[in-house]
Amino acid sequence: MQQWQKAIIDSNEITADSDITTSNSTAWTIDKVQTARQALGGVDGSILDVWGGEYLFDNLHISLKKQRGSSANTLLAYGRNITSFNKKKILRILTHQFILMQL
Description:
Number of strands: 3
Shape: flat
Radius of gyration: 24 Å
Structural class: alpha+beta
């Protein structure tokens, strides 16, 4: 993340860090990665693609974490911790009208 931050040529106030300690490498070319945002993720060879993890964005601070949040062993059961369930059905009706005239 520090190398990514140093590679940004425009002056900015962005700070970046990561708790991932895996050693790896990648190379970006201008034809595949045109912006700093693309280098973070979304293209082959991006930081997210190579190192994995989950991003945490906080205004001008970007963190790449091994895992955001925490895992909880919770049983979801109707009547216990789920009190209601709503299902919406969206129905789209498409109509076409053709006017045929005979001359």
